Amino acid sequence: MEIQNGQLLSSVEIPIPNNVLTTAKRQYKGEDLERFLAMKLYDITYMSDGLQIRGFLALPPLYEEKLPAIQFNRGGSGPKGALTLEGVFSILGMYAAWGYVAIASQYRGQGGSEGAEEWGAGDTNDAQNLTILLKSLPYVDSERIGLIAGSRGGMMAFQMLRTMNDFRAAVTFGSPTMLHLLSQREYIIQTFMPFLKNEESIEKALEERSVVVWADELCKTTPLLILHGTGDRKVHPSHSLELSKVLLETLQPHKLILYENADHVLAGRRSESNVEIRQWMDRYVKEKAKLPIVGPHGN
């Protein structure tokens, strides 16, 4: 029998390490702490384009028959970009504490996954096939799924929203949006270019990864929360600002927040940004709020 994309191949529970437990007791209070301590984290393997891809799945206490879910697209490149246990417990564990099933992929070529690492190509397939897996889980409400993504993962999220309408809401932070306009000196281009060595047209490859070029094709039923730190050294905050300008013209429901003094991963404003992210997910995913009005209106 042929194994299909998104098919879950293995799932192994990971106990909460003592150092993570200590940190959680400082970070969470009340019901959120109870949910964090009661959540379960699994190391998973699933199928994507014939490759076995590693990832993680966090389950909150099953207080509902069908639970809302969040898919997380990590950023980074190479071995240092792969998700660590501490990072997974911090990120997916937090989403589980909020009451969501949470899932993330290591993508091909890293974190124990098969294949060679890519940047905005096959790795985007890995993220899309993870969505297939997520929607197949019997305890997930497939009508209440959100997408949260950072940096490279945000670039991939825009690619996903170009062809998918599976997400009730999405959040990106520190994400490149106009790679095709950058000079070779830019950090993000220097990081990215090695993955384009086999591309016939570098210009076309960059445009395919630059959402400002095709923003009018984004799913209009997925409201976007776009976050960026003004102190981001890796991806200039103008990436998010320019995207917001384009989205105003395409009537894409979105909200832009620039955090002063925050860096690429919003350090320095992490608590504040997590509140914004949670409110966005709760409103549009968990509570299935109506889409905001876009375009000129009112008095």
Question: Can you characterise this structure?
Answer:
There is one protein chain. With 299 residues, the chain is an alpha/beta fold. The chain has one domain (8-286): 3-Layer(aba) Sandwich (Rossmann fold). 35% of the residues lie in helices and 22% in strands. It is built from ten helices and nine strands. The chain has helices at 18-27, 30-38, 78-81, 85-97, 122-136, 152-163, 187-192, 202-208, 238-250, 270-286; strands at residues 8-14, 40-48, 51-59, 67-73, 101-105, 140-150, 169-173, 224-229, 254-259. It has a nine-stranded mixed sheet, sandwiched between helices. The protein is globular, with a radius of gyration of 18 Å.
Helix/strand-derived class?
alpha/beta
Q: Please provide the count of β strands.
A: 9
Q: Which CATH class applies here?
A: Alpha Beta
Could you state the CATH homologous superfamily?
Answer: Alpha/Beta hydrolase fold, catalytic domain
The CATH architecture name reads 3-Layer(aba) Sandwich
Tell me the Rg in angstroms.
Answer: 18 Å
Reported by name, the CATH topology is: Rossmann fold
The whole-number mean of residue pLDDT values reads 94
Helical percentage: 25-40%
Total individual domains: 1
Uncertain residue segments: none
List the helices and strands in order. Answer: EHHEEEHHEHEHEHHEHEH
With strands numbered from the N-terminus, the spatial order across the biggest sheet is: 1-2-3-5-4-6-7-8-9
Our estimate of the beta-strand percent is 15-25%
Tell me, what's the shape?
A: globular
Helix tally equals 10
What is the first-to-last residue Cα distance?
61 Å
What's the story with the biggest beta sheet?
A: 9 strands, mixed
